[in-house]
Write a structure and sequence with these properties.
Layout lengths: L30 H11 L14 H15 L4 E6 L10 H15 L6 H7 L5 H16 L5 E6 L10
Parallel strand pairs: 1-2
Helix pairs in contact: 1-2, 3-5
Length: about 160
């Protein structure tokens, strides 16, 4: 009985789990790839909702890479909410972690911790509003900003 031997290039074609690499030949471009890219270029708010393991993260990675490669004027950040967690912290700590992840991903050099503490008298939601206006837009004044939030369903597990 003859045994089937896998192709020597099989490791460069298939991938198990995670976002597919930009140049992986098994990625199948979909209409969503073009639609998301073009909508973002027009400055539209976009969201991608689908079931697990349907390629959302791969779509995100490819779109962010295209924006970075074809138009270097974009500032892009991606936050995976599972990295923040769902229990064992206050609301203020969750917001602080979320906004810190964005500032860190965008390589903002201003001292985020000092900025956060300067608004200690505000609620976490008010601080988040100030973050967009007084921190993020001042640090990146001349670029479109793309912030991708992954695993948003983890918010359903947050402590009340």
């Amino acid at each position: 009985m003859e045994q089937h031997k896998p192709s020597p290039n099989i490791g460069s074609f298939f991938q198990v789990g995670g976002s597919l690499e930009q140049e992986l030949p098994s990625y199948i471009e979909r209409k969503a790839d073009k639609d998301l890219y073009e909508s973002l270029k027009r400055g539209e708010f976009c969201y991608v909702l689908s079931a697990r393991q349907m390629g959302k993260s791969s779509l995100k990675v490819r779109t962010m890479n295209l924006l970075a490669e074809e138009d270097e004027s974009w500032a892009t950040a991606s936050v995976d909410l599972t990295s923040i967690g769902t229990t064992g912290f206050t609301n203020a700590e969750w917001y602080n972690s979320f906004l810190f992840e964005i500032a860190d991903a965008l390589d903002i050099e201003q001292d985020f911790d000092s900025w956060w503490e300067s608004y200690a008298n505000l609620t976490p939601i008010a601080r988040m509003s100030r973050f967009w206006e007084d921190f993020l837009l001042k640090e990146i004044p001349d670029k479109p900003i793309l912030i991708c939030i992954d695993e948003i369903d983890t918010m359903l597990s947050l402590s009340k």
